[in-house]
């Protein structure tokens, strides 16, 4: 999508502090961190959210899930939270599938 801010990061039209990248995904620091470590992991393919994942996207999503622990280890966090909001009411503000990797402090429960 042309106007998607995350697609612009994927296409190198916008700068981001990238912490990981491969052919399928890119991870970068959140510009408004909610924890000492706050990384966003996104697929390079535009997928709106978890509820818009198609059967042909499952390999991409599996790849993303597999990269989460690798990225967390590289950032030195052993305990972390992974969040993916779906829809405006849940807090999704960018409609491109993304996983928040949050760590570096104690997380409270329940969230929200």
Automatic annotation (TrEMBL):
Question: InterPro entries recorded for this chain?
Answer: Histidine_triad_CS, Histidine_triad_HIT, HIT-like, HIT-like_sf
Organism encoding this protein = candidate division TA06 bacterium 34_109
HIT domain: from which residue to which, for each copy? 5-112
Tell me the organism's taxonomic lineage: Bacteria, Bacteria division TA06
Name the catalytic site residues.
98
Q: What is this protein called?
A: Histidine triad (HIT) protein
Where the record places motif Histidine triad motif is 96-100
Gene3D superfamilies from the UniProt entry:
HIT-like
- Top-level lineage group: Bacteria
Question: Pfam families recorded for this chain?
Answer: DcpS_C
Give GO MF terms, alphabetically.
catalytic activity
């Amino acid at each position: 999508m042309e106007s998607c801010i995350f697609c612009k990061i994927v296409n190198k039209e916008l700068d981001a502090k990238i912490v990981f990248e491969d052919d399928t995904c890119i991870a970068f620091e959140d510009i408004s961190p909610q924890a000492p470590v706050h990384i966003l992991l996104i697929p390079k393919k535009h997928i709106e959210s978890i509820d818009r994942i198609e059967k042909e996207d499952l390999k991409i999503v599996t790849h993303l899930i597999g990269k989460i622990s690798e990225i967390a280890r590289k950032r030195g966090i052993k305990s972390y939270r992974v969040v993916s909001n779906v829809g405006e009411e849940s807090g999704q503000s960018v409609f491109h599938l993304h996983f928040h990797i949050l760590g570096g402090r104690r997380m409270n429960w329940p969230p929200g």
